[in-house]
Amino acid sequence: MKILYFAWMRQRIGLSTEAVELPADVTTVDDLIDWLIGRGDGYAAAFEKRDVIRSAVNQDYVPFDHPIKDTDEIAFFPPVTGG
Amino acid sequence: MIRVQEEDFDIGAEIAALTEGKTAIGGVATFTGLVRDMAPVDGSDQPVSAMTLEHYPGMTEKKLAEIEAEANRRWPLDGSVIIHRYGRLEPGDLIVLVACASAHRQAAFDACQFLMDWLKTDAPFWKLEDTDAGGVWVETRATDDAAAARWNQTPESE
């Protein structure tokens, strides 16, 4: 699975994108966040404000209970500030 | 038409291209966003020397195209343009242009406002401002969410 991070989440994790192999018990966005947080302090800091973070699967906004699969492109980012 | 680009744009040229040959158009409403030289940081205004706009290539274009299509469903437009820049910008630089053309002004004004309100809350862009205190990520404003929420009603129910 391809994961992308933007803005201050990218800075805290130190990566803009990475490819990961999903463990079998990671089936939703929520599961993925829990699993990522366990990978290190940078991830924990990036997902600290879990309630404000937005997620997109294959470039569409999705809620955290959305199912995910290995072929998906998933992105995590802070609230958007364009315009 | 939507464009996501690093380079500057010419508002006059964009309006001319939007209306060229379309004599049914009675009005064009536009909004242009510029980089401000001051920004609130921890409650007080700080000078801003530059701004860097990050975006999500692919999703940005997809979302802009979707919302432009939605504006065209809601209002009788004869043309629309959304241009949003990314990269490093300085105070006074143009960030965004929204232009909507229609036979009459109300549809043009409303569609333009709808697109701007939506851009603020759903287009995947993030602004990093360079201030004396270092780089500061711009935070969302509750007023932007409220402005976007009013469009969730259908036009008929307004």
CATH architecture label name of chain B: Alpha-Beta Complex
β-strand percent of chain A reads 15-25%
Terminus-to-terminus distance of chain B: 27 Å
What Rg of chain A is obtained from the alpha carbons, in whole angstroms? 12 Å
Helix content of chain B: 25-40%
Poorly predicted sequence stretches spanning 5 or more consecutive residues of chain A:
none
Instruction: Report the CATH superfamily of chain A.
Output: Beta-grasp domain
Instruction: Output the structural class of chain B.
Output: alpha+beta
Could you state the oligomeric state of the chains shown? heterodimer
User: Helix amount of chain A, in percent?
Assistant: 25-40%
> Mind summarizing the main beta sheet of chain B?
5 strands, antiparallel
As for the number of domains of chain B, it is 1
User: Architecture of chain A, CATH level 2?
Assistant: Roll
**Could you name the CATH class of chain A?**
Alpha Beta
Mean pLDDT rating of chain B:
93
Number of strands of chain A: 5
Described by strand count, sense and barrel closure, the largest sheet of chain A is: 5 strands, mixed
Strand content of chain B: 35-45%
Task: Output the helix-strand order of chain A.
Answer: EHEHHEEE
Number of strands of chain B: 9
Biggest interface reads: A-B, 16 and 27 residues
What does this structure look like?
The complex is a heterodimer of chains A (83) and B (158). Chain A has helices spanning 7-13, 29-37, 41-46; strands spanning 2-5, 17-19, 54-57, 60-62, 73-77. A 5-stranded mixed β-sheet of chain A has the order 2-1-5-3-4. Chain A is an alpha+beta fold and 83 residues long. Chain A has a single domain (2-77), classed as Roll (Ubiquitin-like (UB roll)), CATH 3.10.20.30. Chain A has 3 helices and 5 strands. The longest helix of chain A has 9 residues, at 29-37. Chain A is globular and about 35 Å long. With 158 residues, chain B is an alpha+beta fold. Chain B has one domain (2-157): Molybdopterin biosynthesis MoaE subunit (Aldehyde Oxidoreductase, domain 3, Alpha-Beta Complex), CATH 3.90.1170. Helices cover 32% and strands 38% of the residues of chain B. Chain B is built from 4 helices and 9 strands; from the N terminus they run βαβββαβββαββα. Chain B has helices spanning 11-19, 59-74, 105-122, 142-149, and strands at 2-5, 27-34, 38-41, 44-55, 77-85, 87-89, 94-102, 125-131, 134-137. In chain B, the strands form 2 sheets. In chain B, strands 3, 4, 6, 8 and 9 form a 5-stranded antiparallel β-sheet that branches. In chain B, strand 3 (38-41) and strand 4 (44-55) form a beta hairpin. In chain B, helix 2 packs antiparallel against helix 3 (105-122) and helix 3 (105-122) crosses helix 4. Chain B starts with a strand and ends in a 9-residue tail after the last helix.
